[in-house]
Amino acid sequence: MSAGNKRGAFIVMEGLDRSGKSTQAARLLERLQRADARVKLLKFPDRTTGIGITIDSYLRSESELDDRAIHLLFSANRWELASSIEESLRAGSTVLCDRYAFSGIAFSAAKGLPYEWCRAPDISLPAPDVTIFLDITPEKAKQRGGYGEERYEKEEMQRMVREVFQRIGSETSREQRWVVVDAGQDIDLVTEDIWRIVEPLVSGVLGPVTRLWETGSNTSIIPS
What we know:
With about 220 residues, this protein is an alpha/beta fold.
C-alpha cells in the first residue's frame, strides 16, 4: 500500500477496570455502523482462543500462573490476532479494540515486573492511530456494579495500574495519539467526547500501519 492511499483507522480504548470501556466500545461500534463505516470490534484478552481460555481461567482465579508467564500469555493472545488486525485495516475497515498492549504493561508493571521487560513482548504489534484512555479514580470505579469479580479488581492495584497508564500516555509518540477522557462524568458525555475524537477518522487514515515502539518504522507485519 502506498502512503497516498487511505486505510482503516485503528482505535484502542483503555482504562481501569469498571471505567466503562466495554459500554463505550459498544456505543462507538453502533455509531460507526450508523455512519456506514466498516468496523470490527476486538476485545483483549480474546478469551475464545486456546491461549485466551487459559487467561480466562486465571482472571477468574480458577488457576494460578507465574506473573511472567501470564504476561507472556497476554502478549501471545494479541499476537494471535496481529496479522488479522493489519489485514482488516489495509482492507479499509476500522478496527476498534477494547484493551490492547498498554493494559498488558500497566497491569504487569503494577505487580512489580520491570516496565521495559513488560513492554518488550509487544514491540512491533500494529500501532493504534489513537488510544482513548477512559480515566477514572479507583474510588469511583469501586462504586460501580460488579467490582471485585475478577483478580485485579482491588482498589490499591487499580491505583498502581493508573499510575503506569499515565506513564505510558506521557511516553506515547505524537503520531500514535493518546487522548484522555474523563470517565467519571455522565455516560452520555463520555460517549460524545469519544465521538469527537473518532469522527475525523471515520473516512480513513493516510499512510501505512506502523508498529508499536518502533520509531519511524512503517514496515507492515504482513507482506504487501
